[in-house]
Amino acid sequence: MQTTVKSSIVFEGVGLHTGQRTRVVMHPASAEYGIWFRRSDVTDRDALIPARWDAVTQSELCTKISNTDGVSISTIEHIMAAIAGTGLHNALIEVDGPEVPILDGSAAPFVNGILARGLREQHAPVRALQILERVEVRNGEAFARLDPSDTLEIDFQIDFNEPAIGRQRKHLNMANGTFVHELCDSRTFCRSEDVDAMRARGLARGGSLANAVVVDGARILTPGGLRHSDEAVRHKMLDALGDLALAGAPFLARYSGHRAGHAMTNALLRTLFARPDAYRMVECDASCAARLPGAGLTRFDAPALAA
Questions:
Q1: Residue 209's pLDDT is what?
Q2: pLDDT score of 219
Q3: Domain 127-298: what homologous superfamily?
Q4: Burial of 44 (0-12, 13-18, 19+ CB in 10 A)
Q5: Class in CATH terms, 2-125
Q6: Where in the sequence numbering do the catalytic residues fall?
Q7: Burial classification of residue 7, based on how many CB atoms lie within 10 Å of its CB (0-12 exposed, 13-18 middle, 19 or more buried)
Q8: For residue range 94-104, what is the model confidence (pLDDT) as tens digits?
Q9: CA–CA gap between residue 305 and residue 307 (Å, rounded)
């Protein structure tokens, strides 16, 4: 069955790139509604924006969606990952500014809010995107691809010169609450030398050691260090799940990413939907639904955040 939140949930914080303090309210929505954002500060144009792959517009270092009136909302990837990872299907998300707040740099605060409030089942079937044959996009050595699988798997590899990150690879089956238990608390990361450069371009104005893992060579500058020894690749997997959620349905597929980012995952979705022979939409029976991210989670699965 599809789900929505039992009642509205409020999140507040600063945007990573704008530095602007914003308030997010996640409201229940009817079955078959899907996920929509609404800019509550916009009154002179259409303020509704669909959380959909074909609404994604070009942006740096985050995922940004826009509607036909030019109203946009950015840095949606973490809240979208939390939505997908908890098995939430229908919600209206109101934001009183141009960017979803970064909070602690992970999806865990959003997950905690959703699980604490709880989900309400709706009388509508869950549908999933079943991949029938490989779909891939490449840019030099980087690639993102989807292969057939009877559940959602994510296989990701990163390779950075900084010894604090280096080369990391992780593969996870996303069933049985894996996202909540293994990925959702992993924070965004960057190199210390990139911070000033980003701010010079008007980015990362709200970034700090409280909402990102900052590395300098072999050193972790963020107080408290890492939450996981491979936190960087786990965060890239988190981002990938959030960007895949813009397909509008959960996947039955293996997603593989190598040095892939937001733009490449969106390019993968655009390539997929241009190839109707490569996928089909299936109505999930009980066995299929039990393999989807979020199935069986309760409030007791909410992550305890590291200091």
A1: 76
A2: 92
A3: lpxc deacetylase, domain 2 (3.30.1700.10)
A4: exposed
A5: alpha beta
A6: 262
A7: exposed
A8: 999 999 999 99
A9: 6
